[in-house]
Amino acid sequence: MPEATPETHVIEFRAAEHLIEARDPRGAVKLLDSVISAHPENTAARLLRARAFFLGAQLRSAEMEFQTVLEREPDNAFAHFALGRTLQRASRGDEARRHFRLAAALDPRPDFIEAANFDPPRAAG
């Protein structure tokens, strides 16, 4: 088998994106494993692998990968949101809420704000 090159890893990353879109998370993880072992600092590949783990219902692996991304990029709103979804799916709502709120604070997208479920302001009375 020929030695992998940086170009090979780019092709594998792009192929993994397509596999996720095609709902083949296991295939995506296989491709991303080689990319990440060659480039462990590649946050984009780790984020994509975390999404694949989530899609494949490998919640503990998804959580660990999203945490790794957030250690490197604590202001990554999508990673906070996705970690919140992962925790929510694992029935850990209080932990999820914290990440949903961080995501909404970092990027006030409607889906992030909705997930954060902020309490409406109380009327002065």
Automatic annotation (TrEMBL):
Coiled coil: none annotated. TPR repeats lie at residues 77-110. InterPro entries: TPR-like_helical_dom_sf, TPR_rpt. Keywords: TPR repeat. This is Tetratricopeptide repeat protein. The lineage of its organism: Bacteria, Bacillati, Actinomycetota, Actinomycetes, Kitasatosporales.
